Amino acid sequence: MSRGTDLRPIVRLTSTAGTGYTYVTRKNRRNDPDRLTLRKYDPIADRHVEFKESR
User: Fold this and answer.
1) pTM recorded for the entire structure
2) Distance, C-alpha 15 to centroid of its chain
3) Burial of 30 by CB count in 10 Å (0-12 exposed, 13-18 middle, 19+ buried)?
4) How far apart are CA 15 and CA 21, in angstroms?
5) Alpha-carbon distance 51 to 3, whole Å?
6) Of 1, 21, 42, 53, which has the highest C-beta tally within 10 A?
């Protein structure tokens, strides 16, 4: 396994609006050791909502 995949794992961001919509992204473990929370667009809810990292 390469060092790059250890430092930047692939994470799934799930919508908090309850629509089940997800984004897949990478995060830097060194800068964000905690769970990631981003505000992104949910096309099912048709608005911007918080997306939280689910493992």
Assistant:
1) 0.84
2) 9
3) exposed
4) 6
5) 27
6) 42
Residue 49: Cβ-neighbour burial (10 angstroms; 0-12, 13-18, 19+): middle
SS3 29: coil
Structural domains of the chain, count? 1
The 10s digit of each residue's pLDDT in 6-43 is: 789 999 999 999 999 999 999 999 999 999 999 999 99
Q: What is the band of 55 on the pLDDT scale with cuts at 50, 70, 90? A: confident
* Beta strands at 37-42 and 10-15: parallel, antiparallel or unpaired: unpaired
Give the number of other Cβ atoms within 10 Å of residue 27's Cβ: 18
